[in-house]
Write a structure and sequence with these properties.
It is built from 15 helices and 20 strands. The protein is an alpha/beta fold. The strands form five sheets. A six-stranded mixed sheet has the order 8-2-1-12-20-19, sandwiched between helices. It has a six-stranded mixed sheet with strand order 6-5-15-16-17-14, with helices on one face. The longest helix is centred in the C-terminal third of the chain and has 31 residues, at 340-370. The structure holds flavin-adenine dinucleotide.
Length: 450
């Protein structure tokens, strides 16, 4: 039996493009089908995060495709959070006490294009744009597509890999077989959505805010963040509830929007020359978590990336987790000597508990970012975490475990990180917290996490 297989990848987003490269590097025949037109020829309609935070887990996977250095060249390093209190006066909080641990702002389209260009270099990869997967015959590995002119196509393969995002058609085909697959599915929306705005470059082309930081305006029930772009602009995202004083449904006239910004985001107002125009032109996106199991069906089809585990963006890990899927799947195939059926089973067992963990951590971080980063006890905890990281080589905060420990599975990062947080928050709530020796705190952390 030939080890080289014919593989259909549904979706040429971030996960599907990297997966196509790795499957091609393994020598398989790869057919990629993407619903949208080729983004290298047709600019995409807006609506979904223009830039993203790429961190060590994503970079490790990208390295396996030989693209790490190239992609890092197009990134802007962010060393920490710049917190903008309502009363003014910025405060910088580093992500890590160690030098060189930073996250990277990268253009979603730019990154996707780099991956598509690389995938196109392989003779054994063909990418078909404008082909929407309608459904999949899972037992026979046949995918049914409709092109932009309404023509249908039926494509046969050895295996189908679904990387078609949160609304995945491949996952829906699995759901349609629920009794046989015992398919579990959950979808939980936050009662908040997101809207993107832009802070353009200053007139001389420079950045209007510190470019090496992720800017946050935490306001308890809502927040605003900004990530830098290479052209001197920032992509700003409002995370607001739908209803109430700060609700997107309430802020429905230009005057209300401007008054709201004056009251809650006063230092930012001068950076938005087109605030109300953009506010009313740009859509409100949904924020939700999707979990499902199994990820594979009948040894013939597998979902990964957002198709298997869409998460809210507050840990900046959705894409990173999707890239990590590709790396782990690749390593699993290697270990299984290219036995896809076996690899599917092992891969889903390995991954699902870890992607469930990052999904839960991301929801926790929503509350931390909009509320806690300005809280006194939380600020003390960050101060101690920095000192611990600067002093002890084996200490990592929960944030660092998730973001900078790319070899540690998310589930372990979550368990260890939560224990540490509980202890440190308890210490920082005590009136004598400043008198407790760092060594003493370190020993207490070690005692509960080892
Ligand atoms: C506001 C926001 C901010 C974010 N910020 C970050 C961040 O800072 N860091 C981070 O790591 N992650 C972030 N994420 C998450 C990240 O965007 C996703 O996790 C990532 O895009 C998942 O990649 P994917 O390829 O699995 O899915 P997608 O990027 O959704 O790609 C799926 C692809 O499949 C195609 N497709 C869909 N249906 C079909 C079909 N039926 N047939 C054929 N093709 C189809 C789509 O057109 C698309 O090209 C953010 C998400 C949001 C919403």
């Amino acid at each position: 039996m030939s080890k080289k297989k014919k593989i259909i990848i549904v979706g040429a987003g971030l996960c599907g493009s990297l997966l196509a490269i790795r499957m091609a590097q393994r020598g398989h025949r790869v057919l990629v089908y993407e619903r949208l037109a080729d983004m290298r020829k047709t600019p995409l309609a807006g609506g979904r995060s223009i830039n993203l935070a790429l961190s060590d887990r994503g970079l490790k996977a990208i390295k396996s495709a030989g693209l790490k250095e190239e992609i890092l060249e197009d990134c802007i390093g962010m060393d920490g959070r710049m917190i903008h209190p309502v009363e003014g006066g910025e405060r910088f909080s580093r992500y890590s006490g160690r030098e060189g641990e930073r996250i990277n702002s990268v253009s979603r389209t730019g990154l996707n294009i780099t991956l598509l260009d690389k995938a196109d270099e392989f003779d054994n990869v063909t990418i078909h744009f404008g082909f929407k997967c309608e459904h999949v015959n899972l037992d026979k590995a046949i995918a049914h597509f409709k092109d932009i002119d309404g023509n249908t196509a039926e494509v046969h393969a050895d295996y189908i890999l679904g990387t078609d995002g949160a609304g995945s058609a491949v996952r829906k085909s699995m759901m349609a077989r629920t009794p046989e697959l015992l398919f579990n599915f959950s979808q939980n929306f936050l009662r908040s959505g997101y809207k993107e705005l832009e802070i353009p470059p200053a007139e001389d082309g420079s950045y209007r805010l510190d470019k090496n930081a992720l800017h946050i305006w935490p306001r308890g029930k809502f927040m605003m963040i900004a990530l830098p772009n290479l052209d001197g602009s920032f992509t700003v995202t409002l995370f607001h509830p739908y209803e109430g004083e700060s609700g997107f449904n309430t802020l429905n006239t230009p005057k209300k929007v401007v008054d709201f910004f004056k009251k809650y985001y006063p230092d930012s107002l001068r950076h938005f020359p087109n605030l109300t125009e953009e506010y009313f032109n740009n859509p409100v996106g949904l924020l939700g978590t999707i979990k499902c199991y199994p990820w594979q069906a009948f040894g013939k089809a597998l979902v990964m990336g957002d198709a298997a585990h869409a998460i809210v963006p507050f840990y900046g890990q959705g894409m990173n987790a999707s890239f990590e899927d590709v790396r782990v799947f690749d390593e699993t195939l290697e270990a299984c000597n290219e036995d896809f059926e076996k690899a599917f089973m092992i891969f889903q067992e390995k991954r699902v508990k870890n992607t469930n963990a990052i999904a839960d951590l991301a929801v926790d971080n929503f509350y931390e970012m909009k509320d806690k980063v300005a809280d006194e006890v939380f600020i003390r905890k960050r101060t101690i975490e920095m000192k611990l990281e600067q002093t002890y080589a084996d200490y990592y905060s929960k944030y660092s475990l998730v973001t900078f420990q790319e070899n540690l599975p998310y589930e372990e990062a979550m368990i260890r990180g939560r224990k540490q947080d509980e202890l440190l928050l308890d210490i920082c709530s005590r009136p004598n917290w400043e008198d407790i020796a760092l060594e003493d705190i370190y020993q207490q952390v070690k005692a509960i996490t080892i």
